[in-house]
Amino acid sequence: MTQGQYIVISNRPIAAATWEMLLAGDTSALTRPGQFVNLRTGGHYLRRPLSVCAWDDSRLTLIYKVVGQGTDWLSERQAGDPIDMLCGLGNGFDTGLSGQHPLLIGGGVGLPPLYQLARQLVQEGKQPRLIMGFNSMQEVFYREEFERLMPVTVTTMDGSCGVRGLVTEVPPEANCTYFYACGPSPMLQALCGCLAMPGQLSLEERMGCGFGACMGCTIRTRLGDKRVCKEGPVFLKEELIW
Amino acid sequence: MVSTAVSLCGIRMDNPVMAASGTFGYGAEFADLYDINCLGSFSFKGTTLHPRFGNPTPRIAESASGMLNAVGLQNPGVEKVIEEELPRMRAFFSKPVMANVSGFALEEYVETCRLLDGQEQVGWLEVNISCPNVHGGGMSFGTCPQSAAEVTRAVKAVCKKPVIIKLSPNVSDIAAIARACEDAGADGLSLINTLVGMRLNLKTRKPILSNVTGGLSGPAILPVALAMVYRVYQAVRIPIVGMGGISCARDVVEMMLAGATAVQIGAANLVDPYICRDIIEDLPAVMAQLGIHNLNDIIGGAHS
pTM score, two decimals? Predict the structure, then answer.
């Protein structure tokens, strides 16, 4: 983990209430897709955890939904503004278990960490597929970016784009033997119920510190009590208790 | 040259800054970031006789200048703390540590304290009779002078090391409870624990925390803590460890003027993991600025 000031390079809306922020700073603590940052926003005491969408040696991309005062403040940052951030938190996804044809499933703003994951899987010579789920067409983001990497199926609740319904409506391809998922908790629970294959899921929880000190985000798993921020946020399907 | 050293219940500390229990784990997460031997000491995660999972999530909520927690004393139990956490801690912390103890019955406090009192690394026992987030124990011992005195007496009977009783602000007369602890043999007092608070989720129209209420900490409670430390200082002669919303070196000086011999930093650790180190580094310059040569000279300075 590193703490420091990161400088906003760009900050723009990319879908309904959804923003993409590019920042410059020390990314050396990021070692795996699925890790997150914890950033200070104006007028709030606790930091805000956000998963990292992509990074390179000196820059990282965050995608966030404006849902309250903290993210509202974030959307008002402009190029050149500094943001105080803890970077490189959590365990991240393990690509070693993916098999040749992993299935990626993301719901709404659960999608961003799957982007760096997809890039890494492709780099490793694997052929991932993605199912991306939204409420409606207005919320769809990063479709082209993902399509440059792999085949993508879009689902929307209202049917305004792609397949109507939940991500669970789409049957996985026969050659998929492993899945990676990130999204709202009901979606993750449904996936664990309907997918027979093993996989990894990134969970969300209210956090105090984000680095394992406060025990604010501990959940029970089949492998003992675990902190979502430290031993997670990525968990194996078989260790989760729903 | 200024002197930051203080003595708490006969144990010398390089500086009065400690990390508060529940915000610093058993030290490992912070030792990964900086050499925590710069601390005066720290109070480790509240430990009970038996392992505890604590409350279900959500355990955390927020306020304008602070936070609510309802962790509910998650800890691996005293046996594992002695077998695993203390030996691990030895590798990165070489000073006496404060052992924070909680319980649900008198015998649990006594047995947990007795076991930790026997550990070489433990300098002080900090007995938490003020946890607001557990039911049928914790705070219920700390809300009346008689039961506070009873716990103090029972723990003192089995401990050789200094026993510090951690007091709740959620009481009508904290000075009466402080006096009862002193009369029962307490070597020191620490205050304040968190204040009971609540936030609601406007979408679900229900409390955010699974425990319904939680403990408020952070800068919001600093004035409450100062007033209570000030009041207790006038009521007892034993040393006070002051805490509640301290976030900078100036807050440390303020808390000591109110009557604290040492201070603890709590919620601030969660927002800024380097805050204890930074406060300790800032302290000499702040002292020089305020014309303080020796921190011992200002303990309770507001009262003279």
Answer: 0.94
**Residue A94 resides in a domain:** no
Domain that holds residue A62: 2-89
Instruction: State how far the Cα of A37 lies from the Cα of A4, in Å rounded to an integer.
Output: 11
Radius of gyration of chain A (CA): 17
Q: Which residues make Cβ contacts (< 8 Å) with residue B163, sequence separation at least 6?
A: B113, B124, B125, B127, B152, B155, B156, B185, B186, B187, B188
In a domain, B210, yes or no: yes
Half-sphere exposure of A172 (CA within 13 A, CB side): 23
A39 touches chain B (CB under 8 A): no
Residue A209 covered by a domain? no
Query: Residue B228's domain is classified under what CATH number?
Result: 3.20.20.70
Residue of B nearest to A214 (CA): B23
E-strand spans in chain B? 6-8, 11-13, 17-19, 41-42, 60-63, 66-69, 97-101, 122-128, 163-166, 188-191, 195-197, 200-201, 206-207, 214-217, 240-243, 262-265
**What are the residues whose beta carbons fall under 8 Å from the beta carbon of A226, sequence distance 6 or more?**
A218, A219, A232, A235
Q: Which residue has the tokens 């105080």?
A: A84
Is residue B1 domain-resident?
no
- For A131-146, write each residue's pLDDT tens digit: 999 999 999 999 999 9
Is A213 within 8 Å of B272 when comparing Cβ atoms? Answer: no
A205/B contact by beta carbon, under 8 A: yes
Q: ipTM score here?
A: 0.92
Number of compact structural domains in chain A? 1
Inter-chain touch B60–A217, beta carbons under 8 Å? yes
Total domains in the fold of chain B: 1
Identify the pLDDT of residue A187.
97
- Answer yes or no: is B230 within a domain: yes
- Any domain includes A35: yes
Range of B110's domain? 6-303
Shortest Cα distance, chain A CAs vs residue B294, angstroms? 32
- B237 CB-contact burial (10 Å; exposed 0-12 / middle 13-18 / buried 19+): exposed
Cβ <8 Å between B69 and A214 = yes
Which chain A residues touch B274 with a CB distance below 8 Å? Answer: 3
Catalytic residues of B: 131
Domain annotation covers residue A191: no
